[in-house]
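Please complete every field before forwarding. Incomplete forms are returned to the sender.

SECTION A: IDENTIFIERS
Entry label: holo-252
Bound molecule: magnesium ion
Molecule representation: SMILES string

SECTION B: INPUTS
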Amino acid sequence: MSLSSQSIVPASRIAAGSSLLQIRDLHAHYGKSHILQGVSFDVGHGEVISLLGRNGSGRSTTARAIMGLVPPSAGQVLLNGQDLAGARPYAVCRAGIAFVPEEREVFANLSVDENLQMGMQPRHPDAPEWSIEQMFDFFPRLKERRNTRAGNLSGGEQQMLTICRSLLGNPKVILIDEPTEGLAPKIVTVVGEAIQEIHRRGVSVVLVEQKLTIALKISTGVCLLGHGHIVFRGTPDELTANPQLLKDWLAV
Ligand SMILES: Nc1ncnc2c1ncn2[C@@H]1O[C@H](COP(=O)(O)OP(=O)(O)OP(=O)(O)O)[C@@H](O)[C@H]1O
Ligand SMILES: [Mg+2]
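SECTION C: PREDICTED COMPLEX
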């Protein structure tokens, strides 16, 4: 990928591995259903953390609670030490957390270009800055379709568009919910490589990914969600070395 070097955050500005996002004892309800029952995990600068678990285990709810789309009933969402729990989604986004929802949610009646423009935000001093041209370097297919109505794009193209629109907010950390679901294998590879490149350029990533092979390949750390809280935190190697964990918390 031929992205210009201007978007790389100087190493002197980030302490590798230090905590950027700290989720502390996060609780969330839908009505009377107590879905998140004390979720805690850290995302360091330069990390890709995969949030794994069975269907319905609360992975999307965790992402939505971090974003303020589901108001947390207790707990903290600390970004560089600033607690964002309970803040409105736009404020969480402006603070530097971007979200790519499971449902993709493109503006169907706007063109690809217009969708991308909608995502643009002022840059943060300690996060890389992205341009629309860089998005087209990631996904040349989007450039070819820049004047097309987003509602007419394929599922894979819509996924690319949503990732790019979120990235144009110049986030410090991006939450991506099931980016490869329903995509053809070739497009899965393209999206996986783009996530790795986003990470290499200095944006931390929280990834909800059903395909274990992709998650294990691109993550620096994994968290397993079960019974409303994190039941395992470790490296991809530590997880694969423990088949019982996979059986207990991931097997269907
Ligand atoms: N809007 C909602 N209202 C009520 N219950 C909900 C709502 N959204 C999710 N739930 C329930 O909360 C639980 C966690 O859902 P969540 O969407 O976080 O799961 P998930 O791990 O992302 O799984 P998947 O994406 O496979 O559905 C599930 O039992 C689900 O049925
Ligand atoms: Mg989900």
